[in-house]
Here is the input.
Amino acid sequence: MSHLRAGCYTAFVPTTRPRYTFTDTGRLEALLNAAQERWPEMTDRKALLLRLAEEGGNALDLKAADIEIEERRRRANAALERISRLVDAEVLLSDQAWS
Here is the structure.
């Protein structure tokens, strides 16, 4: 039986990309079961695994976007604080600033 042979059976597959092997047990099984409940129309476990990966990627993008927005807000607030120390708004709004 070919599946009982020892060694790498993918040696002749032309790719330099990493390969992953997952077994549908433990935590992965629980995640796939939860995904099956969430998306009952998907019956293929491999498709569910890919959907979970996609959803996880989407969640990471949202978190990254939220972090970026928060960082931009923090920089804007810091700039506003610096401006108030560097610029006298009363002078800027008066004729004195333009003479």
Q: What stands out?
A: Residues 2-98 form one domain.
